[in-house]
Design a protein that fits this description.
The protein is mainly beta and about 270 residues long. It has four helices and 19 strands. The strands form four sheets. Strands 1, 2, 3, 4, 5, 6, 7, 10 and 11 form a nine-stranded mixed sheet that branches. Strands 12, 13, 16, 17, 18 and 19 form a six-stranded mixed sheet that branches. Strands 8-9 form a two-stranded antiparallel ribbon.
C-alpha cells in the first residue's frame, strides 16, 4: 500500500508542477486568440482585428492574412493607405509609398505577413503599421514592402461592393467595400473646400436617401477632383465604410458614382 500511495503522490505532484510551470509562462499577444488556429497560421481579417488591445498591439507571433485590395490612390482618394478585405471584414495598412495602385491594383489578391507589425487604434480607426505614433500607425517603408506583402500571381478581379442601406451598416462593415443606391447629396458644393486657390482641406458631405436617412461622405484634400462639384440628382455611390470619432462615414473609391442629374428622381 505504501508503494501505491507513493506512486500516486508522485503522479499528482508531477501534474501540479506542470500546471504551475504552464501558468508561469509569460503570456503573448495570441494566447487567448490563436487557440485552434490552422497549422498554416493564416487567419481571417476579422480574427486579426479581434487581437487589438487598447491603442497599440504588437503582433509578435507568426500570423498572416489574405485578402483583396479594395482601395486605390489612382484618383487621390487614398494617400499612403491600402485597404484589404476578405469575406470576414477589412483592414487598412499605412504605407510610405506613392502610386500604390500601380504596385497593388484594385482587386489584387495579397497576403500580408503580420509578424512585427502593430495594430493601432486611432479615434476608432484600426490600422496596421510598423509602430504607433500620435497620428495612428507608422507607415510601412516602401523598401520593406516585400518583407510584409506578397502578391498573388492571378490577375486582379474587381471586388464586388456589398449593397446596403444606411441603417444596415454595422461594425463588421467597417473597412469594407459597400454600395448605396437611391441617394443624393444634401448640398451641391466642391468635393473639397479650399482655404485658398489650390489649397484644399478634408471635407465632409451629407448624403441622404428617400427614407430620410443620412450618411456622411468624407473626402481627403488629396482628391484629384477636389475642385469639382459633387453630383446632382439621385444615384449610386461606392466606397469604403470607415469609423472615426464614434461615427460611420464613407470614402469614395475610384471616382465610382453614377447620378442622374434630376433632383426630382430622389423622391
Amino acid at each position: 500500500m505504501n508503494r501505491i500511495a507513493r506512486t500516486a503522490y508522485n503522479l499528482v505532484a508531477t501534474v501540479i508542477l506542470l500546471v504551475l510551470i504552464h501558468g508561469c509562462t509569460p503570456a503573448t499577444a495570441f494566447d487567448s486568440s490563436t487557440e485552434g488556429l490552422p497549422h498554416d497560421e493564416y487567419v481571417t481579417i476579422a480574427h486579426l482585428r479581434s487581437l487589438a488591445r487598447g491603442s497599440s498591439t504588437l503582433l509578435s507571433g507568426p500570423i498572416s492574412i489574405r485578402g483583396r485590395v479594395i482601395s486605390s490612390d489612382h484618383y487621390g482618394e487614398f494617400f499612403h493607405e491600402l485597404f484589404l478585405a476578405d469575406r470576414s471584414g477589412g483592414i487598412a495598412l499605412n504605407i510610405t509609398s506613392d502610386h500604390l495602385a500601380d504596385l497593388y491594383p484594385f482587386g489584387q489578391s495579397l497576403t500580408v505577413h503580420c509578424h512585427g507589425l502593430t495594430l493601432c487604434n486611432h479615434s476608432g480607426q484600426l490600422r496596421l503599421g510598423t509602430g504607433d505614433d500620435d497620428w495612428g500607425a507608422e507607415e510601412i517603408p516602401h523598401e520593406e514592402l516585400d518583407h510584409y506583402i506578397s502578391k498573388d500571381t492571378n490577375e486582379p478581379l474587381p471586388p464586388q461592393a456589398q449593397i446596403l442601406r444606411f441603417g444596415e451598416v454595422r461594425p463588421h462593415h467597417i473597412d469594407t467595400y459597400v454600395e448605396f443606391h437611391g441617394v443624393r447629396f444634401a448640398e451641391i458644393r466642391p468635393w473639397c473646400e479650399a482655404d485658398a486657390p489650390g489649397h484644399y482641406r478634408n471635407t465632409t458631405h451629407r448624403l441622404v436617401d428617400g427614407r430620410g436617412g443620412e450618411f456622411m461622405v468624407w473626402m481627403p484634400s488629396t482628391c484629384a477632383y477636389a475642385s469639382s462639384l459633387v453630383p446632382e440628382g439621385c444615384g449610386t455611390i461606392r466606397g469604403i465604410v470607415e469609423y472615426f470619432a464614434g461615427k460611420y462615414r464613407l470614402r469614395v473609391v475610384n471616382h465610382n458614382f453614377q447620378f442622374e442629374p434630376t433632383p426630382s428622381a430622389a423622391k
